[in-house]
Specification:
heterodimer, A: about 525 residues, alpha/beta, Aldehyde Dehydrogenase, Chain A, domain 1, Aldehyde Dehydrogenase, Chain A, domain 2, 2 domains, seven-stranded mixed β-sheet, six-stranded mixed β-sheet, 19 helices, about 15% strand, B: about 325 residues, TIM Barrel, 8 strands
Chain lengths: ~525, ~325
């Protein structure tokens, strides 16, 4: 046996104490759903993990009603400082139970344990810690003094980062004073339900967070529910568009975090070994199930062959297999449907004349797997260069000049993220300035921080998550008269409160812009700063 | 083991550089190499450090580490007795377990070479054949601050006394001042001094002293420069300057030897030295070698650990794997 076939190093599942079936978490209790329960499986082995309740419309009613009660009676009356205490408590509990959460996440989602352990779960804790600090400082969220929560937030999250997306949604919502009904993705409900246990442990008042499980129709019922004031969705552009239509004409506020087809631009003066790592991290992190994945590699023509050759060498050291093995780099594809979509689009790539190269690795017998794949000789008109594949498939395109790189990078209906690799600082700034993407990473990729806003242009959605902007998305400015009163109450100690009272209309307009349209330059600049 | 010939090295350098190795040509070449992004490099090294090496892999790794160690004593207080003790340990690292492999080499100051050769006796030879080499530090180690004549005499004396490997230091001052030609010429001259009367040559390890070069870009350039000038090995540090070997620096140097191999088909060794004390850390280096240049680099003529206290920690871990329980420092010998 060669050394590189490292002996198995599986993370123990003994730390998990899973139930055989899970109910819906409504009003602080687990209750049985009234729809037909479904099973959740491990995508790596197709073994059944547990039965999950299915929320029908009556359950959705109950959850929204519980959230409304909690908002009216408890949460909206509680001081920011006390809300913050709960969030700090949740953050600490997430840290305490981090290994358990990581194992459950890898089991249910199929992502490698090294990612759930080193990326997902630590970020979840960081998100709660960050927004815990905001809870008593809402006057400084940029909306003037005394901003208010929306009320009940309906949140629907995807399967690629189940627990992380939960934290991106719940942490700012609670800090801002909203109550929540959250629906995790059908294939990855497990960690959300363990998180519900953490909420019980944290003694969070009943109804402040409700977690209902089910398929797409449950989510649609929730989003359409009359008792909902705010909708936050992360997922596909098609569903996001349907949600936008559904809530059009209502008072509901919305943030949508949708698909992406990010360009990862490698200039010929890039630090080449680190760029190769960045390309790998950009598209093969989490099996490419990342909305901001760098799925279009734009490489300067004069180094194309060298980059592709080095990339292939590097990819052959990736280890695909058991997600719970600590040495696994590439885990399982989350579902059969997703695997079929990846296969279909790859076949389209071949049919369109691109050259497919896949890592020669052993594919486990059971479960859903796709070997890391790169396509060269891809044209900008190819479907694999246009559509989001959401899998470990990289399309390599070339460019000759910075202007061409920018044009090609922007030539997509999406605009979530982009990457720039060059040794030249001035070029980073010049190119980043012209990229229409919510996040621009320079000499790195797929780095996240709770203080840094994240969100898209165009079909990648609207609204921002993370940072002050993410908080503002769960707040509304105080009504004109109220702001003045609030400012008066705050007295002379708050300068910003006084300023807000003087020109409330402008503040209100700015705030609306923050949640509704493409990001301000400051959001983008913050992103650049956080990129390294 | 023996070094490559100087003539071949020079021809190769001229072919790669496309001109005489003076300051201008070397400067143009070294500054044309793509830069290093420090954050990315350190991130990659940290990622490699998270590999979990268990059971059979760990057992293999521990034996491999022992067989790649240059067991070192470089103290002003070294005596012939101390060197004999070191050699005994090198030949028979764990008296309780004869299946323990021998180390690759003993590394001593030049004046201690005769005692090391004498103590090794029949065990003296090529580590690729399971024997033990004698490595000598030379060229006004560790600072390198003396004239070329003295550096060459230092080298020639060690080789004449029976050293198989010479660990030289580069003139960091000249390198930092951009006098690349001077550094190149010194390495070439030392390499020439490694030649024995019978035409064979001692292997040359070039110590960059990365702790004094400070930036990764400098380390990369110094690595290329040393290889171009004919070094058979590039070595991180003397062990006298902090920081000594780090995983990111070693990864970077491995990337250079990988690229050099891709470009010329010629293999150069890497030796991290100083500061590697725990088996756990040494295993990270093995992982880094295997995943950067490939597993076939894990042989004594292509990879070494310069270490002294590492050996005992590996022996403790090895005993633990055999017996199932941890013993303690009194169950391994001091050297």
């Amino acid at each position: 046996m060669s050394f590189l076939e490292y002996a198995p190093a599986p993370e123990s599942r003994a730390i998990l104490s899973l139930r055989d079936q899970y109910g819906l978490f409504i009003d602080g209790e687990f209750v049985e759903g009234r729809g037909t329960p479904f099973q959740t499986i491990s995508p790596a082995s197709e073994e059944r993990i547990a039965m999950i309740s299915n929320a029908n419309p009556a359950d959705v009613d109950d959850a929204v009603a519980a959230a409304r009660r909690a908002y009216d009676r408890t949460w909206s009356k509680m001081s920011g400082r006390d809300r913050g205490k709960y969030l700090f408590r949740i953050a600490r509990l997430v840290q305490e139970r981090s290994r358990e959460l990581a194992v459950a996440e890898s089991l249910d989602n199929g992502k490698p344990i090294k990612e759930s352990r080193d990326v997902d779960v630590p970020l979840v804790a960081a998100w709660f810690f960050y927004y815990a600090g905001w809870a008593d400082k809402l006057d400084h969220a940029g909306l003037g003094a005394g901003p208010r929560a929306h009320g009940v937030a309906a949140q629907v999250i995807p399967w690629n980062f189940p627990l992380l997306m939960l934290s991106w949604k719940i942490a700012p919502a609670l800090a801002a004073g909203n109550t929540v009904v959250l629906k995790p993705a059908e294939t990855t409900s497990l960690t959300a339900l363990i998180f519900a246990e953490i909420l019980q442990q944290a003694d969070l008042p009943p109804g402040v967070v409700n977690i209902i499980t089910g398929a797409g129709d449950t989510g649609a019922t929730l989003v359409a529910h009359d008792g909902v004031d705010k909708v936050a969705f992360t997922g596909s552009t098609a569903v996001g568009r349907a949600i936008a239509k559904q809530i059009a004409g209502t008072d509901k506020k919305a943030t949508l975090e949708l698909g992406g087809k990010a360009a990862n631009i490698v200039f010929d003066d890039a630090p080449i070994d680190q760029a190769i790592e960045g390309i790998v991290n950009g598209i093969f992190f989490n099996q490419g199930h990342v909305c901001c994945a760098g799925s279009r590699l734009l490489v300067q023509e004069n180094i194309h062959d060298e980059v592709v050759e080095r990339l292939k060498l590097r990819l052959s050291t990736l280890r695909l297999g058991d997600p719970l093995d600590k040495n696994t780099d590439i885990g399982a594809i989350n579902s059969k449907e997703q695997l079929e979509r990846i296969r279909m689009l790859s076949d389209v790539g071949v049919a369109e004349g691109a050259d497919r190269w896949s890592v020669a690795c052993e594919i486990p017998e059971n479960g859903f797997w796709y070997a890391p794949t790169i396509f060269t000789n891809v044209q900008t008109s190819s479907r694999i260069a246009r559509e989001e594949i959401f899998g470990p498939v990289l399309s390599v395109l070339t460019f000759r000049t910075p202007a061409e790189a920018i044009a090609k990078a922007n030539n997509t209906p999406y605009g979530l993220s982009a990457g720039i690799w060059t040794d030249k600082g001035s070029r980073i700034l010049a190119v980043a300035d012209k990229l229409r993407a919510g996040v621009v990473w320079a000499n790195t990729f797929n780095r996240f921080d709770p203080s840094s806003p994240f969100g898209g242009y165009k079909e990648s959605g609207y609204g921002r998550e993370g940072g002050r902007h993410g908080l503002a998305a769960y707040l509304t400015p105080a009504p004109v008269g109220q702001a003045a009163i609030s400012a008066g109450r705050a007295g002379a100690k708050s300068v910003s409160a006084g300023r807000a009272a003087a020109k409330p209309r402008i503040e209100a307009k700015d705030a609306a812009k923050n949640t509704r349209t493409a990001p301000s330059r400051s959001a983008k600049a913050a992103k650049k700063g956080a990129a390294k | 083991m023996s070094g490559t010939s100087l003539v071949t090295a020079r021809e190769r350098a001229l072919a790669v550089l496309g001109g005489e190795p003076d300051d201008q040509t070397l400067g143009r070449y070294l500054h044309g190499i793509p830069g290093v992004d420090a954050v990315g490099l350190e991130q990659r090294a940290a990622g490699l450090g998270t590999r979990s090496i268990k059971t059979s892999s760990k057992k293999w790794a521990l034996d491999k580490i022992i067989s790649l160690v240059d067991l070192t004593t470089l103290e002003g207080a070294d005596t012939p007795g101390k060197v004999r003790s070191l050699v005994a340990k090198a030949v028979n690292p764990d008296p309780a377990d004869p299946s323990t492999p021998r180390v690759a080499a003993v590394c001593v100051y030049g004046d201690m070479v005769p005692y090391a050769v004498d103590a090794l006796g029949g065990a003296h030879g090529d580590p690729d054949d399971g024997l033990i080499s004698v490595a000598a530090v030379a060229t006004a180690f560790p600072s390198g601050r003396s004239s070329l004549e003295i550096k060459l005499a230092d080298t020639a004396e060690a080789v004449a006394a029976g050293a198989d490997e010479i660990d030289m230091v580069i003139d960091r001052g000249a390198f930092l001042a951009g006098r690349y030609g001077q550094v190149f010429d010194q390495i070439s001259a030392v390499k020439d001094a490694c030649r024995r009367a019978d035409g064979t040559s001692a292997s040359l390890k070039v110590i960059l002293e990365t702790g004094e070069l400070v930036t990764y870009d400098n380390v990369r350039r110094a690595s290329w420069l040393s290889i171009l000038a004919g070094g058979d090995f590039i070595k991180t540090s003397t062990g006298k300057v902090s920081p000594a070997a780090t995983l990111p620096v070693t990864l970077l140097m491995l990337e250079v030897v990988r690229d050099w191999h891709l470009a010329t088909g010629h293999r150069v060794g890497v030796k991290p030295a100083g500061g590697i004390r725990a088996s756990k850390d040494a295993i990270k280096y093995l992982v880094t070698v295997a995943e950067t240049v490939g597993e076939d680099w894990l042989v004594p003529h292509l990879f070494r650990f310069g270490a002294s206290s590492l050996l005992n920690d590996v022996l403790l871990q090895r005993q633990k794997m055999t017996t199932g329980h941890y013993s303690g420092p009194d169950y391994v010998t001091i050297d």
